[in-house]
Design brief:
The chain is an alpha/beta fold. The chain contains twelve helices and nine strands. Helix content is 34%, strand content 13%. It binds pyridoxal-5'-phosphate (PLP) and iron/sulfur cluster.
Length: 344
C-alpha cells in the first residue's frame, strides 16, 4: 500500500553541492593502474607487472585516501592485500564458483533479492568505490539483475505489493554511489510504502571514501519515517583513520544505528590482536561490530580463505578480552538456509 507523504528533503545548498562534488572528484581520481599504485607505495615494479596481468575482468580500483592509509614499501600491508590483484586469482580452485550464494535463484523482480523473511535486498548499482579481491559479487551480473533505474522502479512496485517485507536493505555494488538527489527520491518512495518499517544501507563508502558522508546525506536519511541503520565494511583498524572517524561522527547525526561487517581474511585480519584492535577502534568511532563473515567461496578468492576452526578459535580469544558488545558474530552464508548461519 502506498501513502502520500510530504517530501521533507529540500534541494542541496550550494555549499552542500560543493561537498558532493568533492567525493565525485575523488572517485573519478581513484587509482586503476597497478603500476601507479606500486609507484605511490614505493613497491617493486615487478609486483605491479604481476598485478596488471592478474584478476581478469575485475580490475584494480582504489581511492587515493585509502592508499594513504597503507604502509609504504610493505607488500604485505593488510589494506594493500585487499585490493591488489594476485596471479592466483586466475587459478580454478575446487569449491570456488561464480555465484557461491546462489543469489541468482533468490531474485524476485527488478533489483530485488530476497532470501530471508521480512527483509529484502535492493540492488541499486554494480559499481563500488573500491574493488575488493575477495568480493562474493565479483562476477555478479548486475545489469541483468535489475541493478538499474528501470529495475528500481519494478522493485518498488514489488515491495509495495508484498506486506510481509518490513525492511529494505540497499545494497550493490555500493548504494551510496547514487547521489543525494537519487537517494532522496528513493528514500521518499520507500517511506510511502506503509508496511515498511526499516531501511538499512550496506556500504563501504564511509570507510573507503569518507567524503561521501555529506551533511545532505545524513539529513535525507534522518528525514525518513523509517528506522534507518547503516552497516559499514571495514576489515582492519588501519582502515579507520581520522577522516573516517569524522565521517562516522557526521553519520551519527542522522543514522542512529551503525554496525560493521568484516570478512575474515587470511593475511589481513586472521589474528586475535588485529581483530581486537578492529573492534576497539569501531567502538571508539561509534560503530558496533556485527558480523565477521567466513569467506564466501567465490572464484578468485581462495587465497583469502580461513578455516571455520580457526574462526572459532579467534572468536573465543576475542570473547576473553572484549566486552560482549564488541565481539562480532562469526557467520557464514549457506544457500537455502533461512538465515545466515551463526558459527560462534
Ligand atoms: C545478509 C543478508 C541479509 C541480511 O541479513 P541480517 O542477518 O538481517 O543482517 C538479507 N538478505 C540477504 C540476501 C543477505 O545476504
Ligand atoms: S565494496 Fe563491497 S560490494 Fe564492493 S567490491 Fe568491496 S566487498 Fe564487494
Amino acid at each position: 500500500m502506498i501513502m502520500q507523504m510530504p517530501v521533507r528533503n529540500s534541494p542541496p545548498s550550494p555549499a552542500a553541492s560543493a561537498a558532493s562534488a568533492s567525493w565525485k572528484r575523488e572517485l573519478a581520481d581513484a587509482v586503476r593502474d597497478p603500476a601507479e599504485l606500486c609507484r605511490l607505495l614505493g613497491l617493486d615494479p615487478a609486483v605491479a607487472g604481476q598485478a596488471a596481468a592478474a584478476g581478469s575482468g575485475f580490475p584494480l580500483l582504489v581511492p587515493r585516501g585509502f592508499i594513504a592509509r597503507m604502509k609504504p614499501r610493505d607488500p604485505a600491508d593488510p589494506l594493500l592485500l585487499q585490493v591488489l590483484p594476485r596471479v592466483e586469482e586466475d587459478d580454478e580452485v575446487a569449491g570456488f564458483s561464480a555465484d557461491p550464494l546462489a543469489e541468482q535463484q533468490a531474485r524476485r523482480a527488478g533489483g530485488l533479492i530476497q532470501k530471508y523473511a521480512g527483509r529484502a535486498l535492493l540492488l541499486l548499482t554494480g559499481g563500488c568505490a573500491v574493488n575488493c579481491r575477495y568480493c562474493f559479487r565479483r562476477e555478479f551480473p548486475y545489469t541483468e539483475s535489475g541493478a538499474t533505474p528501470a529495475g528500481r522502479a519494478v522493485a518498488l512496485e514489488e515491495l509495495a505489493a508484498d506486506s510481509s517485507i518490513h525492511e529494505v536493505i540497499l545494497s550493490g555494488g555500493d548504494p551510496l554511489l547514487l547521489d543525494d538527489l537519487q537517494l532522496a527520491r528513493l528514500v521518499t518512495d520507500l517511506g510511502r510504502i506503509t508496511h515498511l518499517r526499516r531501511l538499512r544501507i550496506h556500504s563501504r563508502l564511509p570507510v573507503v571514501l569518507p567524503s561521501r558522508v555529506t551533511t545532505d546525506l545524513t539529513a535525507l536519511l534522518s528525514a525518513s519515517r523509517l528506522a534507518v541503520s547503516m552497516v559499514i565494511h571495514a576489515n582492519h583498524a588501519a582502515e579507520l583513520d581520522d577522516a573516517v572517524a569524522a565521517a562516522l561522527a557526521r553519520l551519527a547525526g542522522g543514522v542512529p544505528l551503525r554496525f560493521n561487517q568484516a570478512v575474515l581474511l587470511r593475511g589481513v585480519n586472521d589474528d586475535a590482536d588485529i581483530l581486537a584492535a578492529l573492534s576497539e577502534r569501531l567502538i571508539e568511532v561509534g560503530v558496533t561490530p556485527y558480523y565477521l563473515h567466513l569467506l564466501d567461496p567465490v572464484r578468485g578468492a581462495a587465497g583469502f580463505a580461513v578455516s571455520e576452526t580457526r574462526g572459532r578459535e579467534l572468536i573465543d580469544q576475542l570473547r576473553r578480552r572484549l566486552p560482549g558488545y564488541a565481539v562480532p558474530r562469526l557467520a557464514r552464508e549457506r544457500p537455502g538456509e533461512p538465515a545466515k548461519v551463526w558459527i560462534a
